[in-house]
Amino acid sequence: MTSSEQNNRPSKGMNPNTVMRAIFGIIMIIVYVGMGVLLLINYFNWSADWAWTRYVIGPVLIVYGLYRAWRQYKGIDSPY
């Protein structure tokens, strides 16, 4: 096998771009779920006028974080 044929074969290790996408995806999952939980427990001390916003946006962020986690686990986000 020539050296050019060896270079065209896919490597057995992970591509650094794939690793960075996985790390970024995990961080974003933590951010979405974490922000949703913080909104639900009123960590930011929003006034009662904004309570409806917390009760709408909090669960939406949690559900979206779980959806991203499912996509990450299944490999749907992977470009390869």
Overview of this protein structure:
This protein has 80 residues and is an all-alpha fold. It has one domain (14-74). It is built from 3 helices and no strands. The longest helix is centred in the middle third of the chain and has 25 residues, at 16-40. The radius of gyration is 20 Å and the shape is elongated. The two termini are 26 Å apart. The mean pLDDT is 86.
Secondary structure elements and pairings:
Layout: H1 3-8, H2 16-40, H3 51-74
Brief description of this entry?
The protein is an all-alpha fold and 80 residues long.
Task: Please describe the structure with a list of short key phrases separated by commas or semicolons.
mainly alpha; 69% helix; elongated
Please write the string of helix (H) and strand (E) elements: HHH
Total count of strands: 0
Q: What percentage of amino acids are in beta strands?
A: under 5%
Number of domains: 1
Largest sheet: none
Distance between the termini: 26 Å
Contiguous helical run count: 3
Gross geometry: elongated
- How large is the radius of gyration? 20 Å
